């Protein structure tokens, strides 16, 4: 069966499971690079809903979550805007500053939301680079830093570019893409106020807003960064031992070069990110599997061979 083309942002597991007639709960989706050491958000959410069912029937208030996250990051809460995932963070900043520069390969949502892209405009860039997974040098700058994977790559919430817009994705850090939570750190309060005025009311749902303080208590970025580094090198070595060409990164994924990797693995219930849309044909981004997924993923790679 010929698979549908990959989606523009990964997270294709359920779509491919439907195409292949597989139970979606049996598919390992490594096309979205989530933290394999994240807290069990599903369990915490279920417990919270059982204790506070009114979350569902009340309009959400993200003010307490904003204050808690700002304190954890170490920024003024007046400069922090919680968003409906990292995607809304990008859209809000692009609407406020719609002309930007992009050096490819780079995350496609910047081009989607910017009105004009030109070389002499303020630069947008991901750090670490998505998809290459490399951290920017300390001397490099940008008007907008997308730090979606920065906490997992470095063990710190942000690089601290105070004069720049900084975007974050708790979807990645806490592995909860279905609950949608991102943020913007504005360079000043006026910028944050503009975003709040432009943002739809109640953009952040009540369940994730309620969970933020508890999830922050369970967060240990330094421990996660160390565990990810160890896990990545071990995973890369295992794939290399199977004969695959693997490149380690400073992010929570590896890069694997092999033609048709996505389609071959999909038939074994494993989904990876095809980087053709980034202009990197024949290269695939493979998120680090969790401990429970590890053997299943290696079995699939072994089955298809290099």
Shape: globular
Please report the distance between the alpha carbons of the first and last residues: 21 Å
Count the E strands.
13
Spatial strand arrangement across the major sheet: 2-8-7-6-5
Radius of gyration: 19 Å
Share of helical residues: 40-55%
Weakly predicted, low-confidence segments: none
Identify the CATH architecture of the largest domain: 3-Layer(aba) Sandwich
Mean residue pLDDT: 93
CATH class of the largest domain: Alpha Beta
Question: What characterizes the major β-sheet?
Answer: 5 strands, mixed
Which percent range describes the beta-strand content?
5-15%
Domain module count: 2
Structural class: alpha/beta
Overview of the molecule:
The model has no long low-confidence stretch (mean pLDDT 93). The chain has a 5-stranded mixed beta sheet, with helices on both faces. A 4-stranded antiparallel beta sheet has the order 9-10-13-12, with helices on one face. The chain has a two-stranded parallel ribbon with strand order 1-11. It is built from 13 helices and 13 strands. It folds into 2 domains: 13-39 and 221-304, Aspartate Aminotransferase, domain 1 (Alpha-Beta Complex); 41-217, Type I PLP-dependent aspartate aminotransferase-like (Major domain) (Aspartate Aminotransferase, domain 2), CATH 3.40.640. 42% of the residues are buried. The chain is an alpha/beta fold. It is globular.
């Amino acid at each position: 069966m010929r698979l549908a083309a990959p989606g523009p942002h990964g997270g294709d597991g359920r779509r491919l499971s439907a195409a292949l007639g597989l139970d979606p709960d049996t598919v390992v989706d490594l096309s979205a690079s989530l933290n394999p050491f994240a807290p069990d958000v599903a369990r915490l959410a279920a417990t919270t809903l059982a204790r506070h069912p009114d979350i569902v029937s009340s309009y959400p208030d993200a003010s307490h979550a904003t204050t808690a996250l700002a304190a954890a990051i170490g920024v003024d809460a007046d400069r922090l805007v919680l968003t409906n995932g990292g995607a809304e963070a990008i859209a809000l900043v692009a609407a406020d500053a719609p002309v930007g520069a992009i050096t490819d390969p780079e995350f496609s949502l910047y081009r989607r939301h910017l009105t004009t892209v030109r070389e002499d405009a303020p630069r947008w860039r991901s750090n670490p680079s998505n998809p290459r997974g490399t951290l920017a040098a300390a001397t490099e700058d940008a008007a907008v830093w997308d730090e979606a994977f920065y906490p997992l790559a470095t063990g710190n919430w942000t690089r601290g570019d105070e004069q720049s817009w900084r975007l974050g994705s708790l979807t990645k850090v806490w592995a909860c893409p279905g609950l949608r939570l991102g943020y913007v750190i504005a360079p000043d309060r006026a910028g944050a106020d503009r975003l709040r005025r432009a943002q739809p009311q109640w953009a952040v749902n009540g369940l994730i807003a309620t969970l933020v303080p508890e999830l922050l208590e369970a967060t240990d970025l330094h421990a996660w960064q160390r565990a990810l580094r160890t896990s990545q090198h071990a995973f890369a070595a295992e794939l290399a031992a199977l004969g695959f060409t693997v490149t380690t990164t400073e992010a929570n994924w590896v890069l694997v070069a092999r033609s048709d990797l996505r389609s071959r693995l999909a038939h074994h219930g494993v989904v990876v990110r095809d980087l053709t849309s980034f202009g990197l044909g024949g290269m695939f981004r493979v998120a680090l599997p969790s401990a429970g997924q590890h053997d299943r993923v290696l079995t699939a790679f072994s089955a298809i061979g290099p």
